[in-house]
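pasting for ref
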Amino acid sequence: MNRFVIALLSGVAGLALVSGAQAADLIIDEPAAGVVEVAGGNWDGLYVGAFVGGLGGTFTDDSTSAEWDVSGWLAGVNLGANFTVADGIVLGVVGDVAWSNAENQDGAPLSIDWTGSLRGRLGFDGGSFLPYLTAGLAVAGAEIDGVNETHVGWTVGAGVEFAVAENISVDLLYRYSDYGSVDYGVDDDFSLTAHAVTVGLNFKF
């Protein structure tokens, strides 16, 4: 994993700890002595959002195992829906698309131009916060030496949303994506994997 992604993960972890402490303060409503009462949140419904973050990827020549790293920023939008299916359990589905400027920092002609995903989510209703796991289909548009191709693969990750207003939440997310291999017409197939850390703002309908 690229060093800038590790730095982003550290920053997100720190922000999550601070936000988590603030969220915990919001969900404790004068409990009886020795008892902590956690109120359920209202996460059900459609939402739309926008996000920014960092992306670090690796192109691998499947024939020679040679690797080239790319890194940069991404910005995108998402649309999703949540459904409470049991006490404290929230299922959801979300799709996103993002623009990226991730490229090789040593001048090699490789880049990731855009990414997208369609994912399921499994979350725990913690009242004003919603930790969750996510997984699903992932796609990416990449370029090698002037040739543009689309990779299709899978992605997994974990995140947490914090309610900051009645219909607004902040979403912190880490994802690992394996975008599979593509023939770029240069005698070798190239596979692509990536790590992404994002922070977003969601607005619930």
